Amino acid sequence: AQSVTQLGSHVSVSEGALVLLRCNYSSSVPPYLFWYVQYPNQGLQLLLKYTSAATLVKGINGFEAEFKKSETSFHLTKPSAHMSDAAEYFCAVSDRGGNQFYFGTGTSLTVIP
Amino acid sequence: DADVTQTPRNRITKTGKRIMLECSQTKGHDRMYWYRQDPGLGLRLIYYSFDVKDINKGEISDGYSVSRQAQAKFSLSLESAIPNQTALYFCATGDGSYEQYFGPGTRLTVT
What is the pLDDT of residues B40-81, one digit of tens each? Predict the structure, then answer.
């Protein structure tokens, strides 16, 4: 069985500060991991994905995430928050067949001017 | 035009009514998915389909049914709606590359 846990349902950062959104996974097989972003009244869009290549994955809008097998983590970071980063962020895991995706409960990011 | 469209975008219905949510895609993907999103629960998979003849139950399929009318169309039905089916419903497509493409969502309220 696979699952992801997102620590912190709400995170607030000041504009220009580091963004860190936490995700831990549970998987009986090597996982594929994803971060999606959801802006208000929109569907989800992919930020980045880990599919067993480089452990440090770079995504869109300056976000990146590092796969750490020893910590079963896939935390999302951005060095400097922008007001436009305010959104809901979801971590997700898939098996290697890509048959099903399991999403975390989401983290709402607020950026304070 | 959007690659994944959902109709209706908003719907209010009464308990016991039958309702259908429709999803269409122009991406040419074989894989299609239906999720529901609830506050604090994230997205949960209802059904998924890998082609017209392949339909699979997801995590929370009870109370729902689906129809894959064509490669591009995947409909979700609530045979007898109940209030705890009030949620935001998303359709998504996939091409097997582990990326999913989401529609804009349908907000369903069951009174």
Answer: 888 999 999 999 999 999 989 999 999 999 999 999 999 999
H helices within B37-98, ranges in order? none
Distance from C-alpha of A20 to C-alpha of A11, rounded to nearest angstrom: 9
**Does the beta-carbon distance from B42 to A100 stay under 8 Å?**
no
Q: Is the C-alpha dihedral spanning B81, B41, B101, A108 positive or negative?
A: positive
Residue of A nearest to B97 (CA): A98
Q: How far is A112 from chain B (nearest CA, A)?
A: 22
Q: Is A31 within 8 Å of chain B by CB?
A: no
From the list A32, A31, A36, A29, the residue with the least C-alpha distance to A6 is A36
Structure tokens at A79: 């060095």
- pLDDT for B1: 58
Phi, psi for residue B25 in degrees, rounded to 5: -135, 145
Query: Residue A44 and residue A17: Cα distance in Å, rounded?
Result: 24
**Cα–Cα dist A62/A47, whole Å:** 9
Structure tokens at A26: 């549970």
